[in-house]
Every structure is written in C-alpha cells, then in structure tokens.
Amino acid sequence: MKHETIRHSFEEFLKTKGLRLTRQRSRIFEKAFACHDHFTAETFLGWLTAEEVSKADRVSRATVYRTLGLLADGGFLELLDTGSGEAHYEHVLGHRHHDHLICTSCGRIEEFVDEKIEELQAEIARSHGFELTSHDLRLMGICKSCRRKAKTNVSA
Q1: What is the pLDDT of residues 90-144, one digit of tens each?
Q2: Which of 86, 22, 33 is nearest to 60 (CA)?
Q3: Burial class (CB in 10 A: 0-12, 13-18, 19+), 142
Q4: How far apart are CA 103 and CA 120, in angstroms?
Q5: Beta bridge partners of 138
Q6: Torsion angle of alpha carbons 95, 98, 104, 107, nearest 10°?
Q7: Bridge-partner residues for 99, per DSSP?
Q8: N or C: where does the chain have the smaller number of CB atoms within 10 Å of the terminal CB?
Q9: For the domain bounded by 100-156, which CATH number is listed?
Q10: Start and end residues for every CATH 1.10.10.10 domain found in the chain
Q11: What is the mean pLDDT of residues 39-66?
Q12: 62/64 Cα distance (integer angstroms)
C-alpha cells in the first residue's frame, strides 16, 4: 500500500473521530511509518525530541500517546504486548502477517513466519467452528545472547 494512500486513510479515520491532521499528528504519522522497528511510546517520544529543530517541531508526550493510540485504533499500527508492562508498536500496513519471539530478559523482539503454524491455527479454528479473522502469536523466552551471558556469569 502506498504511503500517500495510508496517509489519506489516516486523515479520513481522524475525520470520523471529529479530528483533523494537525502538524504534530502528521509528524507522528510520518515518523511511525518511517520506522521499521518495534517501539514504545517513550522511545518514540525520544526520537521525536532528538529531531526537534525549532519550537514548532515540539510534540507533547500526551499528543504522542494519543496519536499512537489513534493509529492503533484505526489499524495503522499494531500494539504488541511483550509482557514488560509497556506497549510496543509496529506499523503493519503493507507488511505480511508475522508472529513474534520475545526475550523476557532483554526485551528483544524477533519476527518470524511459519506456514505450518498458520495452517495449524486455521485448522484448530475450523475444528471449533470459528471463522478466524485475526490472531496474534507471541512466544516468550530467553534469547541466545541472554542465555550465553547467563552461562558466562554462572561459570565466572
């Protein structure tokens, strides 16, 4: 999906909420869709703050949180619960469905796609009489790097 099409869809979504695309919302939208990583609202705010050139570029914490929420509500961003107590976001439009491996030690998030898992989930839904409309698979564990560090610390 083209960037301008997504932007137009976001503007139309805002209108349904009685809102308009302000300069601050536009800046948040652009940054969110320029990013290809998972991010928290606080991390995102830090990126915006670091890029400020003038007072006109400032975006408040509240505006960041509200706009990320709007982007998630409209299906432009996906919310990912990593179990850390802080929501992570990623833009999903134009991206193939994927699942996540999440390290509970360092917070690393790794995306993966497995057709066997996709088929099994669809089969399970059908066998229970469900029409699958969406799903979210998160596998929690300890990544290779954290396991290596733990092993090094134990043997030291």
Answers
A1: 987 767 788 899 999 998 889 898 999 999 999 999 999 999 888 888 899 999 9
A2: 22
A3: middle
A4: 24
A5: 100
A6: -20
A7: 112
A8: C
A9: 3.30.1490.190
A10: 1-95
A11: 91
A12: 5
Tell me whether strands 109-112 and 39-40 are parallel, antiparallel or unpaired: unpaired
pLDDT given at position 67: 96
What is the dotted CATH code of the domain comprising 1-95? 1.10.10.10
Report the candidate in 103, 109, 115, 114 with the shortest Cα–Cα distance to residue 90. 109
Q: How, if at all, do strands 99-103 and 77-80 pair? A: unpaired
By C-alpha distance, which of 32, 109, 116, 119 is closest to 67?
Answer: 32
pLDDT higher than threshold 70 for residue 1:
no
Q: Is the pTM of this model over 0.85?
A: no
